[in-house]
Amino acid sequence: MRVPAESFRHRPREGAGDRPPSDTLPTVPVEIDIEHVARLARLGLTDEELARFREQLAVILEHAERVREVAAEDVPPTAHPVPTRNVFREDEPRPGLDREEALANAPDREDDRFKVPRIVEEVE
After folding, report:
1. From the centroid of its chain, how far is CA 66?
2. pLDDT of residue 3
3. What is each CA distance from 99 to 72, 92, 94, 107, in whole angstroms?
4. What's the Cα-to-Cα distance from 55 to each of 38, 43, 51, 105, 115, rounded to whole Å?
5. Radius of gyration of the chain from Cα atoms?
6. Confidence (pLDDT) at 76
């Protein structure tokens, strides 16, 4: 069910003070109280910033509405917009490093092992 666009007009909250009338604000597809969101985020915004963010949010939401309106019923869902292919080499077994090669650049070693700082506390 589609809702008429005129029902999306921003309506100022009661007690919003001397805000511009709702017919001067851009249409917003949902009612979002910018002042309330700013308070939740603990942001102190000026009237000019509130108006600017309201306009920016309107543009974002209008764009999202246009994207939602795209006729895509005949387009199957995909994980990637273009076909992909595996570009990795074949997984073939091959010899690994011997112990001395593996430990050659170790910052510290103990016998034939890497020595690392203890990270677990001992329980006494």
Report:
1. 20
2. 42
3. 58, 21, 16, 15
4. 15, 18, 6, 58, 59
5. 30
6. 78
Average pLDDT by consecutive 10-residue portion of the chain (124 residues)? 43 44 48 87 91 89 83 78 82 91 92 89 74
Secondary structure, 3-state, 35-89: HHHHHHCCCCCCHHHHHHHHHHHHHHHHHHHHHHCCCCCCCCCCCCCCCCCCCCC
pTM, 2 dp: 0.37
Report the C-alpha gap between 83 and 40 in whole angstroms.
43
C-alpha–C-alpha distance, residues 26 and 56, integer Å: 9
Any idea what DSSP says for residue 108?
A: S
- Please give the Cα distance from 43 to 36 (Å, whole number): 10
Rounded to whole angstroms, the Cα distance separating 55 from 57 reads 5
Structure tokens at 17: 């003070």
Q: Distance between terminal CA atoms of the chain?
A: 68
